[in-house]
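Subject: Sanity check before I submit

Could someone independently write out the structure tokens for this chain? I want to compare against mine line by line before I put it in a report. The sequence has 123 residues.
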Amino acid sequence: MHGRTALVVDDDDDIRALITTVLARAGYSTGAVDAGRPALASAQADPPAVYVLDVRMPEMDGHEVCRRLKADPHTSAPVLMVSAEASEADVAAGYEAGCDDFLPKPFSPRELLARLDQMLAAA
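---
Independent answer below. Compare away.
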């Protein structure tokens, strides 16, 4: 894990590109993948300082990815879950899976960066 590195995991190409661009402009080194299994493989190969993780993805949802990342000391790092599904139950499920913060979609780039910076400062 190093500095301001982030792994963006979202199956929506536009959202993934938007988050990656916002983070890169703010000085983050980013990686990006479109599904849970590649996220776990990428985290094993080069663990980031923080994850931006979508909840709804095919095959393996963000909750399961989060649980697996947090269960492994090598890949455990702060997780910011992002989701269009942001009911009280959805947010609670994210925290139960181990996320450190939850950001409903749509979100502002400024809020995304503020939350990530706060998570990294606390880590």
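---
OP: Matches mine. For the report I'm noting this point. The two ends are 11 Å apart (CA to CA).
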